[in-house]
Amino acid sequence: MKARGSALQAVSLALALCMAIAAAGAPASSAPLRRRYREPAEQGRRSQPQPQPPPQQPSGPPPYEPDLLRLSQIIGSLAYLRNLCGAHDGEVWRAKMAKLLDAEGQSQTVRERLAGAYNEGFRDYELIYRRCTPNARIVISRYLAEGSKLTRKVTSHYGGG
Questions:
Q1: Torsion of CA 67, 85, 135, 143, to 10 degrees
Q2: pTM for the model
Q3: What digits encode the pLDDT tens for the residues 20-30?
Q4: Can you give the chain as a three-state secondary structure string?
């Protein structure tokens, strides 16, 4: 029972982190501001306000995306393995994944990658395990620990905490 509670706490924390990151938007650019050089003749005249360039779109996936993909894969694995081993909480894990998709899946491509990682984790163990074994229980405990570790890593590096 204790492992179940800590697993749900880890996933809840991960999802809360994802929602906070998504709400905060992309990190601000660290590029220095550039000032326009004015010729001496222009200094006496008032210059017309220059239109602001559109904000730059992120040039790729966020730096924490590999961790979220791994977390999605772990959630999928746990959804299958914990049901197999009698926890019967697969729907809880699916709901957590749905929240992660809502928080991070701003584009269809991101949603597909996260969902694909979840499905991969689920299917990989569905092919290997037909019944709960001691090894399946070991995998569950290792994935609960890895999920917690990933959550702490992302939180400390990207969550401002």
A1: 10
A2: 0.63
A3: 333 333 333 33
A4: CHHHHHHHHHHHHHHHHHHHHHHHCCCCCCCCCCCCCCCHHHCCCCCCCCCCCCCCCCCCCCCCHHHHHHHHHHHHHHHHHHHHCCCCCHHHHHHHHHHHHHHHCCCHHHHHHHHHHHHHHHHHHHHHCCCCCHHHHHHHHHHHHHHHHHHHHHHHHHCCC
Angle at 93 (CA atoms; ends 91, 96), nearest 5 degrees:
110
Contact residues for 118 (Cβ-Cβ < 8 A; gap 6+) = 72, 73, 75, 76, 79, 97
Cβ 22 vs Cβ 103: under 8 Å? yes
Q: Give the sign of the dihedral formed by CA 2, CA 137, CA 145, CA 11.
A: negative
Amino acid at 155: T
Q: Are 80 and 122 in contact (CB under 8 A)?
A: yes
